[in-house]
From TrEMBL:
Residue ranges of domain T2SS protein K second SAM-like in the record: 216-276
T2SS protein K first SAM-like domain location: 100-209
Annotated organism of origin: Sphingomonas changbaiensis NBRC 104936
Family, per entry: Belongs to the GSP K family.
UniProt name for this protein: Type II secretion system protein K
Length: 323
């Protein structure tokens, strides 16, 4: 072999070795990545298992809490974070009164799978809440009526409402659901709900699996949630006055919703029958926020529990972005 040929051959060999080294390094990096992904998936699965175990414990304890006094839910349990040590991590659980929110499905009356009709009382309360939160009257009326049309079974729009025709001309045409709202995020699809309006409403609304008017517990409602009380008597009770009432609440709470409405601070503000019936001292719905951290992996879970059945049961569960 001539010297020039030997040089060319050597260069070829070196190039092959370089290519093989690059391929080997790439394969090794892919193996490491696959190993990390598998380990992370395993950690997330383990974290979910811990979250489900914490959920089971919470359901049992909530059932015991309600059983202790079925007519009047004890106070002092809501909004408190409980931390649980885990092997290699921690879990935290916060329990909320799941009825202290505006039930989006209350703008209709009826049951899922049957005929649903718009409910004026629920629509009026939703309008009142939106105006208390700083949303204009016209926008509030449009959103509330459109939500009722979104849920009700008929195809005739309410004044300022929106049925299928209102959604047919958009870039992605769709129709109204004609059934109960399954998750509060569904509100974003309703006519009139802008991103700004949704951001304002998100902390205040929920989607209970019934059309009951929002079941406010006057013993667990926090002062920060005063607008939910003020929306019940918008022409008589301001949010500031409602907040003062909640701050001045007896340490052990009220004995009944009837007793609450007949305090001296509410003299002359007797509610109508529907409002008095939807306020009370018993919690039916409990909302859970669970967070589990295992090493670098995190899982968030939210759950809704119904506690007035025996035993208490899980109604809905959803996983956060971390899962």
């Amino acid at each position: 072999m001539k010297p020039g040929e030997r040089g060319a051959a050597l260069l070829t060999v070196l190039m092959l070795v370089s290519v093989m080294a690059v391929l080997a390094a790439s394969a090794l990096e892919r193996l490491r990545l696959s190993t990390r992904i598998a380990a992370n998936a395993g950690a997330i699965d383990q974290a979910r298992s811990y979250a489900l175990a914490a959920e089971d414990i919470a359901v049992t304890r909530i059932g015991a809490l309600v059983d202790a006094d079925p007519a009047r839910t004890p106070v002092g349990w809501a909004e408190r974070e409980t931390s649980l040590p885990l092997p290699g991590g921690t879990a935290s659980v916060v329990v909320h009164d799941g009825g202290n929110c505006f039930n989006l499905n209350s703008v209709a009356v009826g049951q899922a799978g049957q005929r649903l009709m718009a409910r004026p009382a629920g629509i009026a309360q939703f309008e009142a809440l939106m105006q208390i939160l700083g949303i204009g009257q016209g926008e509030a009326e449009h959103v509330a009526a459109s939500l009722a049309d979104w849920i009700d079974s008929d195809s005739f729009p309410l004044p300022q409402g929106a049925e299928d025709a209102a959604y047919a001309g958009g870039p992605t045409p769709y129709k109204t659901a004609n059934t109960l709202v399954a998750d509060s995020s569904e509100l974003r699809a309703v006519a009139g709900v802008t991103p700004e309006i949704y951001d304002k409403l998100k902390p205040w609304v929920c989607a209970l699996p019934v059309t009951d008017l929002s079941p406010i517990n006057v013993n667990t409602l926090t002062p920060e949630q005063a607008p939910l009380l003020a929306m019940l008597l918008p022409d008589k009770l301001s949010a500031d006055r409602a907040r003062a009432l909640l701050i001045g609440r007896p340490a052990g709470g009220y004995e009944s919703g009837y007793a609450f409405w007949r305090t001296s601070s509410l003299a002359g503000m007797a509610p109508g029958g529907d409002v008095e019936a939807q306020t009370g001292v018993r919690t039916r719905w409990f909302a859970l926020d669970l967070h589990v951290r295992l090493g670098d992996s995190e899982v968030d879970e939210t759950a809704l529990i119904e506690a007035t059945v025996q035993p208490a049961r899980l109604v809905r569960r959803s996983w956060g972005d971390g899962a």
